[in-house]
Input
Amino acid sequence: MKTKTLKCLVSTLLTLCTAGISYADKQPPPIAQLTAPADAPNVVLVLLDDVGFGATGRFGGPVSTPALSELADEGLSYNRFHTTAICSPTRASLLTGRDSHTAGVGTVMNVANSYPGYHGILKKETATIAEVLRQQGYSTAAFGKWHLTPDWETSQSGPFDRWPTGVGFEKFYGFMGGETDQFEPTLYNGTTPIMRPDGEPYHLTEDMADQSITWLRNQHSLAPNKPFLLYFAPGATHAPHQAPAEWIERFRGKFDSGWDAMREATFARQQQLGVIPANTQLTPRPAQLPAWDSLSKDEQRVAARMMEVYAGFLAHTDAQIGRLIQSLKDSKQFDNTLFVYIVGDNGGSAEGGLLGSVNYMGELQGLPEPLARKLLRLKDVGGPDSFSNYPAGWAWAMNTPFQWVKQIASHLGATRNPMVLSWPKGINNGGEIRTQFSHVNDLVPTILEAAGIDAPSRVNGVKQLPMDGTSLLYSFNDADAKERHTTQYFEVFGNRAIYHDGWMASAFHGRMPWTAGLGK
Output
């Protein structure tokens, strides 16, 4: 043991001598640390789930969303922002700045396959914004839904290199799959499965906000000059639609007039607010969706209640985001925070079936629930004893004024989502609308330009593919700037479209989006 210690001491002395350093030096050279560019902004990315263009009050919808409105008043609203039409691909594109197929995630994780672009494995050639910023001196954290790890790698046997903490996020608190119970979630802290915090009442979105605010406070206290990236991705409003009872009750009776009337009312508000052009024409209801008046009174009663639950879920979620915004303002960090609030990873989801589901997983697999059973369980909808999703007609209404719903990548009902962006230090004219074509893959280039960081040619030794997105900084202080993202494709389950210079070509193959693999 003594011989080993002596050898170590000799080796250390030789190293110091070789470097020209001796123990007599009073001030040894400092250890180099990563530091972000001066005044680089903090970044918050909020991504809601399954929310259409016409759901929130700020964009003419029936659900009041004060946090979104506050952010829009201080920042910019983009009314031609686009997603990929379904969950995992949008998230891959958001976090890498590339088209989803280029990143390796052209479809949702649970149906990934061996075809090129559909592996469900994020490519090392398309590093995430979390990894890029982490290597540039940022703190990084993700809270909520992930859904970007192959299903066969989500157990405790690993591997863990494609979990959030393996692709650049130093902190992860959330769930790995496409959805989870909001009252009793399947949770992970890092890569460790955990039980949700004790105590009642409990709701996952509130817990996420608590965890995010705590992380922000700790980060700011320990490293006040270090910028951060926070990715906040709640399960809302993906099924199961679950919310505190008092939030659901706020909307009792608000949807008794049905989805056809709701769509007309939303359209009128959108024109009044200017979030759609004055000469916009409202698209008709697809023949495959029933008219509200064709439903029986009991079917209408069930459908209206399910929409009340959805509305409560969305409003409650917006309130938690409001807490996050207020926390940044309280700590004086908000002014230099690039805060991006994306209202949905795709349009409203029709996966609850034509008449809605108390347990939507059965409906999705072709096992609809009898009306009598729905009526019997109506009091449970939205609570811990349900796993509900609203009828497809409400999804269509929430996508006003566009055609179709989630999964139908050929039409804007699936791909056009509101996006609000705030950065007081970098935006001069708050409250304005931006009409340039934009896509979820534009946000990584936007963040990098705002931070003064070049897109790296290599990350962890791997040569990187070029970005597919275009920075939106050019539009921040120029409402009339010519759009720079002029071509973009969309594809999900064979439904596809391409946008180019104001024109769009679409191909929809008729598979209805409320069944899973049944060809209907």
In short: DSSP finds 15 helices and 17 strands in the chain. The radius of gyration is 24 Å. The CA atoms of residues 364 and 515 lie 5 Å apart. Residues 297-330 form the longest helix (34 residues).
